[in-house]
Amino acid sequence: MGAVDLGAPPWWPEGGGPAAPPGHRPPHPYPPHPFPAETPSETTTRLRPVRSRSPFRAAAAAVCVVLGLGLIGGAATGSWLISDSSADPAAHSTYTVGRAAWHSVPVDTLFPRTLKGDGAGPGGSDRVWTRLAVAPDSGCATALDPLLLKTVRPAGCARLLRATYTDATSSSVTTVGLLFTEGDTDAMRALSTRFTDQHLDARTDLMPRAYPVKGTPAAGFGDRQRASWSVHVLTEVPVVVFAVSGFADGRAVATPQPAARAMVRNATTAAAQAGLGHEAKGLADLVERGLRRTVAERTEKPE
């Protein structure tokens, strides 16, 4: 039976090719899209079978975990220890730094070999002092009179440093001392208040002792040669600064006079007329300023 030509459907174009029905969107034009179609990963990636865990591998993994935790903990602890001193304000407080200055600061910084006092002498004259010797660091029992030792005892005595100087003419000698206490801020303030209110710095029975140096102008500088003195209790650092002066020729002084009185204009005592009050006060002030400056520099935290 022959094929019957039913004719082309009415929507075909004359070229014989099929035409899309109305409303139909043609497929993506040829050539094919330049990017290959994505393929689901599970069709191209083969999953590896999970092997049973052996006791040896389990033990090795446990050891690694323990070692890792130990290293992390050690690093954290080391970091804490290293940063603790710089982060803790107490480690950099003036009291902590100041109390340790007696052994952490060079002696030439605490007691310079030469000290210049601009305007520190009578009438605003300049002074230059040369260090004769530094006493070995010691306690307070042998360096302070018993009554002065009893007075400062509430603050405690950690260490005492002393050095003796002479002026440019070698006519006067002066011992300067730094008494490092064990007291805290309250103890130092209480001691300072007591000295001020009771005028203890003006009592002759509370004079510091001199430090004689053999073979120097201070060879005969003893208790009887003390002519003028100064005592200052600091409250910013746990230190008492003092100085006591006398004649280099070893003469005894019957009426010692505190520096504040010996520095008064028209004072007639031997200590005042010789400028020994200025010697004691000038040297004490310079040593105190140096100590304050050093403690302030060491208190600043590193950047």
Structure write-up:
Helices cover about 35% and strands about 15% of the residues. With about 300 residues, the chain is α+β, with helices and mostly antiparallel strands. It has 2 domains: about 60-90; about 95-300, no CATH class. It has a 7-stranded mixed beta sheet. Helix 2 (about 95-105) crosses helix 8. Mean pLDDT is about 80; it is low at about 1-20, about 25-50 and about 70-90.
Helix-strand blueprint:
Elements (H helix, E strand, L loop, with lengths): L54 H33 L6 H11 L2 H4 L3 E4 L9 E8 L11 H7 L6 E9 L4 E9 L4 H13 L30 E6 L5 E9 L9 E2 H4 L7 H4 L2 H24 L4
Parallel strand pairs: 5-7
Antiparallel strand pairs: 1-2, 2-3, 3-4, 4-6, 5-6
Helix pairs in contact: 2-8
Summarize this structure briefly:
This protein has helices spanning 55-87, 94-104, 107-110, 146-152, 185-197, 259-262, 270-273, 276-299; strands at 114-117, 127-134, 159-167, 172-180, 228-233, 239-247, 257-258. α2 (94-104) packs across α8.
Count the E strands: 7
Poorly predicted sequence stretches spanning 5 or more consecutive residues: 1-18, 23-50, 71-88
Note the overall shape.
Answer: globular
Largest sheet report:
7 strands, mixed
**Topology pattern, helix = H, strand = E:** HHHEEHEEHEEEHHH
Q: Look at the structure and give the mean pLDDT.
A: 80
